[in-house]
Write a structure and sequence with these properties.
Blueprint (H helix, E strand, L loop, with lengths): L2 E5 L4 H12 L3 E6 L7 H9 L2 E5 L5 H14 L5 E4 L17 H22 L5 E5 L27 H16 L9 E5 L7 H4 L5 H10 L3 H13 L9 E3 L2 E2 L8 H14 L3
Parallel strand pairs: 1-2, 1-4, 2-3, 4-5, 5-6, 6-7
Antiparallel strand pairs: 7-8
Bound molecules: NADP nicotinamide-adenine-dinucleotide phosphate.
The site of NADP nicotinamide-adenine-dinucleotide phosphate has 29 residues, from helix 1 and helix 6.
Length: 272
C-alpha cells in the first residue's frame, strides 16, 4: 500500500485521481480548501482508515504552512505527492502576500508543498513529485520571469494562467538535478482537456467554452493521465514535462534556473 498525497482532491481531476488511488488500495492524504465531497468512495475509505484529510488554503501563506506542517508530522513517509490544485480565473486577483494569484497557487504553492514535505518523500519508496501543469504553457510567446508575481497584462487562460504553468514546469525542470542525491524525482504533467468546474468557469475564453462539450473529456481521463505518468513504466526522466504522456520540450528553458531562484526566494522571504 502506497501513501500518496493529493492536493485539489475536492473536485475535477484531483477528485478522480483520489478515487482511483483509493480503489487500488492505497492510503490517500488530501490537502483541500473545500471539504471532500460525501461520495461513497470517501465514506468507505474513511471507514477503512485509508483516507487522511487536511484542509488549507494554498493561496494563503499561513494557512498552507500550518496544514503542511500538520501533514508532515502525521505522515513521516509519503511515496508520491501530486500537486493537482490550481486556479484559472476570469479577472486579476492579488493574494494577501501581494502576489498575483495564479503565480501564488499554481507556481509557488507546489514548491512550498515539496519543500515542507521533502523529508516525508525522502523516506518514501517511489520518491516522486508530480506537478500538474498545462499545455497552455506551450502557448506563451514572450516570457520574463521577473513579472510573474505581478504581471501587467491579464488575458483569460493565455495570460497569467499560462505563465504560471510554464513557470511551474520550468522550476520542476531546474530542480530535478539538484534532487538527484535524494533520489526524489520531479515531473510536470498536462492532464489534457477535462470537463471540470475550472473549464466551465469564467477563466475560460468564450470560444473554448463553446468547444468544451466536443473536445473535453470526463476528468477520469485526466486522472488516468496523471496515474500513468506516475506509475507506468518506463517512467519519465526527472525534470520532464509530459504532454499527451510524452516528454515535451519546455519553452524558455534557458530561463528555468531564474524561475527556480525566484520561487525559492518567494517561498523563503515571505515566510512561505
Ligand atoms: N481541466 C482541464 O482541462 C485542465 C487542463 C490542463 C491543466 N489542468 C490543471 O489540472 C488541475 C486540476 O484542475 P481541474 O480542471 O480539475 O479544476 P477544478 O475542478 O476547478 O479543481 C481545482 C482544485 O484546486 C483547488 N484549489 C483552487 N484554489 C485553491 C486554493 N487556494 N487552495 C487550495 N486548493 C485550491 C480547488 O479547490 P475548491 O474545491 O475549494 O475550489 C479544486 O479542488 C489544475 O492544476 C489545472 O490547472 C486542468
Amino acid at each position: 500500500m502506497k501513501r500518496v498525497l493529493v492536493t485539489g482532491a475536492s473536485s475535477g481531476v484531483g477528485l478522480e485521481l483520489m478515487k482511483r488511488l483509493l480503489g487500488s488500495g492505497h492510503h490517500v492524504v488530501t490537502l483541500t480548501r473545500s471539504p471532500l465531497p460525501a461520495v461513497p468512495e470517501v465514506q468507505a475509505a474513511r471507514e477503512r482508515g485509508h483516507l487522511s484529510g487536511y484542509q488549507g488554503n494554498l493561496a494563503d501563506a499561513k494557512s498552507r504552512t500550518t496544514a503542511l506542517a500538520e501533514i508532515a508530522s502525521a505522515h513521516p513517509r509519503l511515496d508520491v505527492v501530486f500537486n493537482v490544485a490550481g486556479v484559472s480565473l476570469g479577472k486579476p486577483q492579488t493574494t494577501a502576500q501581494g502576489r498575483e494569484i495564479h503565480f501564488e497557487v499554481n507556481t509557488l504553492a507546489p514548491f512550498v508543498v515539496l519543500d515542507e514535505l521533502r523529508p516525508s518523500l525522502e523516506r518514501g519508496e517511489d520518491r516522486l513529485l508530480v506537478n500538474v501543469s498545462s499545455n497552455a504553457a506551450l502557448m506563451v510567446n514572450s516570457f520574463d520571469p521577473a513579472v510573474l508575481p505581478a504581471p501587467e497584462e491579464f488575458k483569460k487562460l493565455f495570460g497569467p494562467y499560462a505563465l504560471s504553468k510554464l513557470a511551474l514546469s520550468l522550476w520542476t525542470h531546474a530542480l530535478a538535478p539538484r534532487l538527484e542525491a535524494t533520489r526524489i524525482r520531479v515531473i510536470s504533467v498536462c492532464p489534457g482537456p477535462n470537463k471540470t468546474p475550472m473549464t466551465a468557469g469564467d477563466g475560460m475564453p468564450w470560444w473554448l467554452l463553446m468547444l468544451r462539450p466536443l473536445l473535453f473529456a470526463h476528468p477520469r481521463k485526466g486522472a488516468t493521465t496523471l496515474w500513468q505518468a506516475a506509475f507506468a513504466h518506463p517512467s519519465a526522466p526527472s525534470g520532464a514535462f509530459l504532454v499527451k504522456g510524452k516528454p515535451t520540450p519546455i519553452p524558455f528553458l534557458e530561463r528555468a534556473s531564474e524561475v527556480l531562484t525566484l520561487v525559492e526566494s518567494a517561498a523563503g522571504t515571505r515566510g512561505h
